[in-house]
Every structure is written in C-alpha cells, then in structure tokens.
Amino acid sequence: NAGVTQTPKFRVLKTGQSMTLLCAQDMNHEYMYWYRQDPGMGLRLIHYSVGEGTTAKGEVPDGYNVSRLKKQNFLLGLESAAPSQTSVYFCASARLRNPYEQYFGPGTRLTVT
Amino acid sequence: SQQGEEDPQALSIQEGENATMNCSYKTSINNLQWYRQNSGRGLVHLILIRSNEREKHSGRLRVTLDTSKKSSSLLITASRAADTASYFCATDVGGTSYGKLTFGQGTILTVHP
C-alpha cells in the first residue's frame, strides 16, 4: 500500500496564480485533512472531510477551497495565491473509529513569489 | 492561537540518554497524542493518551498526562540516533470526534551517536 500520497512535491507560484494540490489515500479511510506547517509553528488545520461529498472548515480556511468527490481523494485549491500561503502542506487521513491516529503524506512545499 | 506549547524548543543529548519533552495546553481535552516528524517527512503517530489516563507506555516511550495542570510529557528512554526528529503534541478540539487536532510548535530532538 502507498498510504497517503501528495502531488506535487514542490511548486512555485506567482502571486495571483491558482493551483490544486492532490491528496490520495489507499487505506479506505473516512476522514481526510489538510494542514499547513510554517517555520516555528505546529501544523494548523485548513479544511477537513468526514466523508465523500462533505467538507468543513478548520482553523485557517481563508484563501483555500477543498473538494472530496471520491472517498480516496481530497483536493486543496488556491484560487489566487498570496505570499502568505508560502508553506508546507500536509494531507492526512484517518479511520472513522480512530480519527486521532492520523496518517500523513510526505508534504508539498509551496512557494508563492 | 496554539492550544499546545512545547518545552524545550530544542534538545540535544547523547545516544543512550533519556529525552523528556513537555507539552502544555489551554483548554479541556478528550485526549492528547504525540507525533514524530523526521526532517522533510510527514508526521507519524506515536501514542495517544485519553483524559482519564495518567500514564501510558509503548516500547521506549512513556507518556504522562496531568489534566489538573493541563500538561503532558513524553519520555524516550535509551535514545538512539534514529530518534533524531521533531516531536509534536496534539490535542483534540473537543465537542466532536472528527479528529480535529491542534498541534504544538514542536521540540527538535537531536541524538548524537
């Protein structure tokens, strides 16, 4: 099993450009999450999903949108990138019965210039 | 604002020594977990302790929880060079079981061979 994979691994955007980060998991997990990690800070939850077709806002949702059309995929979109969105983005998934044991992807390093 | 704060921010020890990291949080929790992050990688779940537990062991890991002081500690015994990583505590936001976690800023542990 690949676990949680993220595409792409690195990306550089110019201010105002848009992009989509893809997260895929092959563990049949119900829950999926998007976090961002900035230097000197812990991970902060952007959006999460408790099942196919459902999404909800986390701690820092502004400037991001998400979709979960298939159970195994969770997409994070930036419609108009800003330098403040320069960060490392992590996707995670978890089982319904134990949502606190989350399985993380390797991360996407995004730079917005 | 961050729920969890960790202390120390960085810890440097020799192989074979014990490493202790502390986490304090602000609001009531249902459980607390510890994660490890190797450089450039995603997080890996280490251990979960529930609010009605005071101590938990897993291999060389020992976690304590003091809900009256809103604090937890992670002890790694007989440390190895491979334990070099960042360690994060994470608490659930509470109210739901969706796995919405708030992470501390982490402790960087360096174990010298």
Distance from N terminus to C terminus of chain B (CA atoms, Å) equals 37 Å
Radius of gyration of chain A: 13 Å
Tally of DSSP β-strands of chain B: 11
User: Largest interface, and how many residues on either side?
Assistant: A-B, 27 and 24 residues
Report the structural category of chain A: mainly beta
Terminal Cα separation of chain A, in Å? Answer: 36 Å
Largest sheet of chain A: 7 strands, mixed
Low-confidence stretches of chain B: none
Number of helices of chain A: 0
| Topology, number of strands of chain A | 11
- What string, H for helix and E for strand, traces the elements of chain A in order? EEEEEEEEEEE
Chain-averaged pLDDT of chain A: 95
What does this structure look like?
The complex is a heterodimer of chains A (113) and B (113). Chain A is built from no helices and 11 strands. Chain A is mainly β and 113 residues long. The termini of chain A are far apart. Chain B is an all-beta fold and 113 residues long. Chain B has strands at residues 4-7, 10-14, 19-25, 31-37, 43-50, 55-58, 61-66, 71-76, 85-92, 101-103, 107-112. The radius of gyration of chain B is 13 Å and the shape is globular. The relative contact order of chain B is 0.35. The model of chain B has no long low-confidence stretch (mean pLDDT 92). At the A-B interface, strand 4, strand 5, strand 9 and strand 10 of A face strand 5, strand 9 and strand 10 of B.
